[in-house]
Amino acid sequence: MTPNQEEALYNFLENAIKPFTLEEVTGYVRMQDSMWAKNLPQEIVAHIDSRKIAFRLDNRNWLSRRGFFENIPFVISPSRLELINGILIPGHRCIPFANPAVMPHDYEFFWQNKKIPKTTSEGHPADFYPYYSMFGEEFAPQYIARDNIENESAFNFDPYEEPHEVSINTFDMRSIFRETAFIPGDRFVVHSRDWKEGHFDLEKVNKDQWSQEDLLSWFEAAQKGFEDSFSKLGPGICTEEQTAFAYWYGGKRMCEIPAYSLEEFIHEKTDLIEMVPYGIETRFWYAGKDIPDSNGLIGINAPPDRTFIEDVLFKVNIPVSEYVVLSYIRDAIYRKEIDVEKIIDNIVPSTVQLGKSDREIFAGYIAEALEEKTVKFSLSFDNSIGPVRQRAGELHKAVVDLAARLKKGELDPSWLPRHTFISLSQIQGYTANLLEDLDSDSALPDSEIEAMENSIDTMIDAFDEQKDIINEAMNNFRRSNMTVIRKGKDSSLEKNWLTVQISIGGTDIWRRVVIPVNWILEDLHRLIQVCLNWKNEYRHRFFAGKSVNIDKKELDNKLKIREIGDQGIVELEYEYGSKWTIKAILFSHQAGKDETVRCVAGEGAAPPESINGNVRFNKILRALNGGSASERQAALLEVGKDFDPMHFDIGKCNRDLAAAFKAVK
Q: Is 640 domain-assigned?
């Protein structure tokens, strides 16, 4: 689709209240822009379904987000801080019930058909982050910065230091709280008055007005909705998309009251769903389970209706739009380096093998676009954004180059940091978006250029951090002489020893231990208990790893490790009780003459098994790291007064292993 056609599509969806057909949306888009109309229906279908911007009813009918959410009530539970100060912070409270294009500070709330007046609240940014965290904790500073121009200037002044104080738009609720005798535990039921503009009606519900039985039925529907969303769509493009489809899959009960607010549900009620790291972002996911990794750039922003040039690049794992290519061409004109081959090399690094015929097609396209853009180019307009675009292009090339080297290199993917390719994909996606915005014939405001520069600084820092972690992993890999065992006659299985790496899902705690290949899974269970200093108080089960399928088959505890490797299973999932999940990866090992069961590496203090899962454990860690004195004291009562989250005593671990497996040599 052309930019005008894409804009028309989004305009149609913003205004569609009833279910619509493919013919209706295609007709509307064609009226706005009739270019390339022949394939327009297929391109619209691809765009809607890949971007998840409407709900599919059947093969030719959809329902827009507005059509679905404008009819559903939801709940906001004011915090004690808000009640004390007589305010209501919109923040993330209205996702997914508001148009994502509308910022929270532009929402309007109504009480008894009267617009609630706005006020401002001042404080350190960290005081307000929890009210924006469900957008993703990494995005909370951006929402606060965009609340007003003063905040934006304060955040842009030094991207490495948070402002000492910010001011955000809030709703003045003093008279409403006073007149309704609002107390902690009371809630607001919210109805969308206008989804497109972000207008909402509030009405009060007393603390004890709803029974626990009624709330339980909503709770169960919400858990099902999120779990169905995960299993059918994976982690999605953002948390807003995840919550939207949770309501869609949650069925009729999730779309009714009584209900919990999403904050209550995620942070206080459910222990099956939590917010977890996903590359350099966060997503909702199954508690205690890691989001599956990717094995290459995943094309987060790749066009679903690709042009032939976009398809040429997509085939070699460079998922960009044509506007990114045009931005590189504009950069070449700015730098006065208009050689076609050099432009290709800037877009396609030498590590990426572009076929001869595709390279010729690409060269022809660039030559034609170069001629057209040179005529229209204005240095006076481009002087301010040229340096920013050049930095963005260099970063984008570096990300693509690193991803290509990792994909074709000798490092086993199991040794890469968690979500390496996801992180690189996210950096690539953000940088590609910047390049698209910088393909402009007009000068941009200084504030916008400054924000872009800070964004590039942030992405460069994230990229450098990823490179450092990857380089450390590569060095460790080379020193270890370890590789994941392979199906068939793997030499490591023909020997007597291998290495297993165990890690607690949802945490950074792991151990790497040398074990005999003739062990059975029950022996591995005993090893995990010893390494984590647990007492075997709960039932355990083993499954083949890399699966979130609830119907996965349990492995027999009498199965030998050698047999597991022969089946090509290199990763195991160990469920302990109902809350703990351990991932175990099997590696080859160069055994010494008198090899023994021993731990060779590890990080992090293991949590007590009685903590009942990583969700609770992570809350305890947050209390220890940044909670109040009373919160830290309560946390230490659960983990022990001498608990140090960073401490791992490998000597003690090996003494415990020697005592438990003293006969194994």
A: no
* Nearby residues of 293 by Cβ (< 8 Å), 6 or more positions away: 413, 418, 419, 420, 421, 422
In the predicted model, what is the mean pLDDT of residues 145-158?
Answer: 89
Per-residue pLDDT at 413 exceeds 60: yes
Within this chain, do residues 200 and 245 fall inside the same structural domain, yes or no?
no
Between 630 and 388, the higher pLDDT residue? 388
Q: Do residues 165 and 52 both lie within one domain?
A: no
Note whether 330 and 461 are same-domain residues.
yes
Q: What are the helix (H) ranges across 129-205?
A: 140-145, 149-157, 174-179
Express each pLDDT in 439-487 by its tens digit: 887 778 888 888 888 889 989 999 998 888 888 777 666 555 555 665 5
Same-domain pairing of 185 and 222:
no
Q: How far apart are CA 390 and CA 452, in angstroms?
A: 12
Q: What is the pLDDT of residues 638-649, one digit of tens each?
A: 998 889 998 999
Q: Closest Cα partner for 657 from 502, 538, 539, 537?
A: 502
How far is C-alpha 664 from the chain's CA centre? 43
Tokens standing for residue 648: 């791992």
State CA 39 to chain mean position distance.
Answer: 33
**Is omega for the bond preceding 159 within 30 degrees of 0, making it cis?**
no
Q: From CA 52, how far away is CA 286, in angstroms rounded? A: 21
Report how many domains make up the chain: 5
Length of the chain: 665
Amino acid at 528: I
Closest CA to 145 of 95, 132, 88: 132
d(CA 269, CA 216): 10
Tens of pLDDT along 215-229?
A: 999 999 999 999 999
Contact 444, 381 (CB under 8 A): no
> How confident is the model at residue 83, as a pLDDT?
96
- Chain position carrying tokens 């877009």: 347
The string of DSSP letters for 586-616 reads EE-----TT--SEEEEEESPPPPGGG-SHHH
Query: Which tokens sit at 189?
Result: 């039921």
Please compute the mean of the pLDDT values over residues 517-538 and round it to a whole number.
Answer: 94
pLDDT tens-digit series, residues 578-605: 889 898 988 877 777 778 999 988 989 9
- Measure the CA–CA gap between 469 and 616, rounded to whole angstroms: 28
* Domain assignment of residue 244, given as a range: 212-286
The one-letter amino acid code at 661 reads: F
Please count the other Cβ atoms lying within 10 Å of the Cβ belonging to residue 203: 14
